[in-house]
Amino acid sequence: MHDSTSIRLIEPTDAAPIAAHRARDFEAFRPWEPVQPTDFFTLAGQEKRIDRLLAGHRAGTVWPGVVLADGQVIGQVTIGGILPQPHLRRGSLGYWIACTAQNQGHAGRAVGLALRVMTDELRLHRAEASTNLENWPSQRVLRRNGFSPYGVAHSSILLDGSWRDGLLWERILSD
Q1: DSSP 3-state assignment of 124?
Q2: Helix, coil or strand: residue 38
Q3: What is the mean pLDDT of residues 34-47?
Q4: Half-sphere exposure of residue 74, counting CA atoms within 13 Å on the CB side?
Q5: What is the DSSP letter of 171?
Q6: How many CB atoms lie within 10 A of CB 133?
Q7: How many CB atoms lie within 10 A of CB 84?
Q8: d(Cα 85, Cα 36) in Å, to the nearest integer?
Q9: How far is 165 from 74, CA to CA, in rounded Å?
Q10: Contact 168, 156 (CB under 8 A)
Q11: Residue 56's CATH number
């Protein structure tokens, strides 16, 4: 684990490094993520995407962050589907780390930092996540951060041309 790992709210200037990582790592992420439009992998596409994420942040439905190592963008961590109502107070966590920075502890540390944002800043009670059934590395990251699996969402996401099952994860943040 690297102490230099940090997260912060995404900024428009993050579009260039994100686009570069996503274009370079296209094949590596293909088994785990839905098909994206071609412009997703371009600077302009990421600029539009970041604008939408920041609009969602202003509306209180998403906390879009970047993962940094030694001050450089190496991935993203996003808390989406935020439900801040007193009787719900939950959010769904997603993340990715560029291939050049994987297997160095950044994902685990970023998830831990995102859980602090969920608890301290967003005042959420419940964190949720989902993984592809075969995504063992991501499952290890979630387990190490106190998540427990609680079910399978059958045929829940279209990946690489096939409907796949998702393993659902949860962590209670406060009592």
Answers
A1: coil
A2: helix
A3: 92
A4: 23
A5: E
A6: 11
A7: 14
A8: 32
A9: 28
A10: no
A11: 3.40.630.30
pTM of whole model > 0.85? Answer: yes
Count CB neighbours of 140 within 10 A.
13
CB 132 within 8 A of CB 166: yes
The domain in which residue 127 lies consists of: 5-172
Alpha carbon dihedral 127, 128, 133, 138, in 10-degree steps, equals -40
Dihedral angle, C-alpha 115, 140, 166, 170, nearest 10 °: -40
Residues in the chain: 175
**The pLDDT of residue 33:** 86
Q: Of 20, 122, 23, whose CA–CA distance to 65 is shortest?
A: 122
Task: Express each pLDDT in 128-165 by its tens digit.
Answer: 999 999 899 999 999 999 999 999 999 998 888 889 99
pLDDT at residue number 3: 61
Cβ contacts of 172 within 8 Å, gap of 6 or more: 125, 126, 127
CA–CA separation, 94 and 89 (whole Å): 17
Band of residue 1 on the pLDDT scale cut at 50, 70, 90: very low
**What letter does residue 32 receive in the DSSP assignment?**
T
Numbers of helices and strands, H then E, in the chain: 5, 7
Total tally of structural domains belonging to the chain: 1
Secondary structure (3-state) at 33: coil
Q: Residue 110: pLDDT band by 50, 70, 90 thresholds?
A: very high
Instruction: Copy the structure tokens of residue 11.
Output: 């900024």
